[in-house]
Design goal:
four-stranded antiparallel beta sheet; 10 strands; Rieske Iron-sulfur Protein; 3 helices; binds FE2/S2 (inorganic) cluster; 2 domains; alpha+beta; elongated
């Protein structure tokens, strides 16, 4: 080993400390961003949010008015905020969207509808299963667990089954074929015990 090699090397302690602080700062920033995103996607739907498919091959894509067939079947959707954040952090944000004949809507349901399209909470008021099925003969929304049926023309009132209370309606409007939230949920979400 040469004399040169045996000479003590200077420690770049300041540089190392600076890099350490940069890493800590980046991690803190990332942590705050994730926490903020999680917090945001747990808020309730607000005016201006867009409904997007919550499942299937078009998951995350806007539900378009022209893909909803008259008299069903319905589509399940979550709201998405204007920044593109899907509000799926709360299961109670999921809605079931269906198109019916506008002339058959009762006045209350019509007030929150757009071109015959209505959106209701997809959380059953009986035991909180997902209202995801459609009775094509009766043209009714059906809960997958115990078969409660809800009339989409009459603000989702119960017409059959153990549920005791209608589904909450989410008022909507149409913008360039997309379904946009026009107000907060009207009515209580899920079973009586749920918030
Ligand atoms: S949870 Fe929907 S009918 Fe029971």
């Amino acid at each position: 080993m040469s004399r040169e090699d045996r000479r003590p090397r200077r420690c770049d302690c300041l540089g190392a400390r600076r890099r350490e602080l940069m890493v800590i700062g980046a991690l803190a920033w990332a942590g705050t961003s994730v926490a903020r995103a999680l917090q945001l996607n747990e808020r309730r739907p607000q005016v201006g949010d867009i409904l997007v498919h919550s499942m299937g091959p078009r998951k995350g894509q806007p539900v378009r008015s022209d893909e909803l067939v008259l008299d069903g079947p319905p589509q399940l959707a979550f709201p998405m905020d204007p920044s593109g954040l899907i509000l799926d952090g709360l299961r109670f944000n999921e809605v079931v969207v269906v198109r019916v004949d506008p002339a058959q809507l009762d006045p209350e349901a019509r007030a929150g509808a757009a071109d015959g399209i209505v959106a209701y909470s997809a959380i059953c008021t009986h035991e909180a299963c997902t209202v995801s099925m459609w009775n094509d003969y009766e043209k009714m929304l059906v809960c997958s667990c115990h078969g409660s049926m809800f009339d989409p023309r009459a603000r989702a009132k119960v017409v059959f089954g153990p549920a005791q209370r209608r589904l909450a309606q989410l008022p909507i409007r149409l913008e360039e074929g997309k379904i946009v939230v026009a107000g907060p949920f009207q009515g209580r979400l899920g079973p009586q015990r749920a918030s």
